[in-house]
Amino acid sequence: MYDAGPQAAGAVRALRELARERPDELELFEGFTDAELDGWAVAVPKEVREVLREIGGLETEDHEYRFGPRGRETFADGCWTLGETDFGEGSLIVGIGAAGWGPVVAVNPWGADPDVTVEAPDFTAWLAGFAERFADGVADRPRGRFSVPATPTVELAEGAAGGDPELVALVGRGDSLTDVVDLRGLPGYPCAVDWEPYFSTVHNTADTGSSEVQFEIAGEGRALLLHSVVSGDFLGRAVRRHRPPADAARRAVAELRELAAGHPDFVVLDAGCADSVMDGWAVPVPEEARVVLREIGGVAIAGLPALRLLPGAPEHAVDPELHRMLGGDGSYWPLARIDYGRSHALAQIRIDPATGRWGYVVSVPGDGDKLREYPELALLAESLPDLLLTFARLARRAAEGPDFAARMSRDTRWLFPNTGEPWPRPAPVGEWAGSADPLLAVATELPDGTHAADLRAVPIPSDLCFYRAAGWPYAARLERLHFAAAGQLAAAVPARG
């Protein structure tokens, strides 16, 4: 019955007969008038209209479905929610398009076994299937007889040359916490989706978890987007994040120069410096950083804290005790003071003292006493060029509308730690004993009680809050932060005693 959608009239006739035969088990709701259907914000195709004139929904002992908006309910996100599944834990949605309504998808993102199933290719096929199951006395939802994987949207976006142009256009730049399911050409119905949220409710945090999954049927039924909103829970699995281009440093310089030329009131660049000057600095400066620093010594964008890329800026001042907790000389390169209310943080590039490599950009609270009590940081970028490219992208977007500075300020709250970004889980380093990953294996040599997080496969930005981990003692105080491989791994070492 799922291979070719049945006629709407047949689905209505079957349901009416069942309602007459078993009135205590099935109730059909009143249909809609043509005037009501014409007033909806979405098109109602002919075959769907034939159903909705006769039936506005149905209710059984186990399920209730509404086929159109009633009261304050409206169509949203390319779909209509027909009803709830699994006692309110999930939703049954149908795509809304001018050419037809479909497909019908059950989304239940909660529990130990999250489930997403494409139940039918269109609304009338689903309705006929429901009638057939009801007639056979089957109360359970249809389970997938086929299966397809969900694809990270970043993976699809960055492999655009080999992807379907329509699908690539729907995901745009992609998002590290959003997966996509191509709803065209599924192997059959019902079709289960191999997917799980990016958050986990297994590990307790200091907050009450309120993570959710936002789902959208896009492109008039072409694709299903599944976005994990990680709030109050830890990340549960690795993400596919945007890959900085191979020429990120040169591209960052070019994009910032173009912005400064086109928007001189909003973007101001300081002059860079010569290689001979960089040769005299206290840290080695790799070529990727030199490509930027030869041309740009500072970036001032309206609404943002100024980036001072050369040494000696007043914003770079660090309290001696905080300097020690950050690793001391040669382990980081200050970039900016980030003010947030009455607090401030220091944005910095982490440097590998052994190799001189400049790596991840992080933001760490600038108050040593606060950091000692509440150890945390924010991951801002994979590198200095990556951070500059992000600033340039946000500035271009802000320039498209009014009030440039306000838009930039609103879009960059993530520069300060713990302002609403996803939380990677800080794990006791003992969990990595015997790991085949050299980075994780070396971390096990850190003192007992140390918690760490692998930052290589987490979203950017992310908030790493060590004190939110269940195993971090409530009264513990930070001895120092430890960064391995130029920031790819971050650890908090607690004070002894």
Short description:
This protein is α+β, with helices and mostly antiparallel strands and 497 residues long. Helix content is 24%, strand content 29%. A hairpin with a 4-residue loop joins strand 2 and strand 3.
Structural commentary:
With 497 residues, this protein is α+β, with helices and mostly antiparallel strands. Helix content is 24%, strand content 29%. The chain has 14 helices and 27 strands. It has a six-stranded mixed sheet with strand order 4-5-6-7-11-8. It has a five-stranded antiparallel sheet with strand order 19-20-21-22-25. Strand 5 and strand 6 (100-108) form a beta hairpin. It is elongated, with a radius of gyration of 27 Å. The chain starts with 7 loop residues before the first helix and ends with a strand.
Overall form: elongated
Reading side by side through the largest sheet, how are the strands ordered?
A: 4-5-6-7-11-8
Summarize the biggest pleated sheet: 6 strands, mixed
Helix content: 10-25%
Report mean pLDDT, rounded to a whole number: 92
* Count of beta strands: 27
The low-pLDDT segments are 1-5
- Which structural category fits the helices and strands? alpha+beta
Distance between the termini: 69 Å
User: How much strand?
Assistant: 25-35%
Radius of gyration, taken over Cα atoms and rounded to an integer in Å: 27 Å
Number of helices: 14
